[in-house]
Design goal:
single chain; mainly alpha
């Protein structure tokens, strides 16, 4: 059975890793959709860009907060201070909001994608593929998977951060 110190290290390092995965996902999100713009589906491309901006913004925020967690040594600090509490809970908050927004934004985009390019013999799909695009739903599925992983990582971070802060506060109180 893992103790709280081991969980602390695992969860905060997992957070930083997943934050970087989210950021890399944001960088590659619209790559395949750029072909849609070249074949006359400007509205779809613009929608994909809006979704990409949301993912990119939260990916950048998550990496920045993850870096601050590492700087404040949240992954190994024995005594937690208010800064660790704010960063830990902020980390959880960013991941949960990002996961919700990814699902909310990716779902209609995926539906548009399927509607436009789903039929194998549709002129849109043939033009899209002929011009270098590849019909695949993997970009959307990866978004759902990352959202699930972010939620799974966010919960223990909130629990561990709160627990460590309570333990540290009780030690400080007992020491005075």
């Amino acid at each position: 059975m893992l103790n709280i110190k081991q969980w602390q290290k695992i969860t905060f390092l997992s957070y930083f890793f997943v934050a970087n995965v989210l950021f890399i996902y944001a960088l590659g999100f619209s790559t395949n959709f750029a072909y849609a713009q070249t074949v006359g589906y400007e509205d779809f491309f613009n929608h994909a860009q809006q979704v990409n901006r949301v993912i990119y913004t939260f990916g950048l925020m998550a990496v920045a907060i993850g870096g601050l967690n590492l700087m404040f040594e949240s992954q190994k600090r024995k005594n937690y201070y208010m800064s660790n509490l704010i960063l830990g809970l902020g980390s959880s908050f960013v991941f949960i909001i990002a996961a919700i927004l990814i699902i909310i934004n990716v779902t209609p985009l995926m539906n548009d994608y399927i509607e436009l390019f789903g039929a194998e013999d549709s002129p849109a799909r043939l033009t899209f593929v002929f011009n270098g695009g590849k019909y695949t739903l993997s970009t959307f599925i990866i978004g759902y998977v990352i959202s699930g992983i972010m939620t799974i990582v966010a919960v223990p971070i909130a629990i561990i951060t709160t627990k460590k802060y309570q333990i540290s506060a009780n030690k400080r109180k007992a020491g005075n």
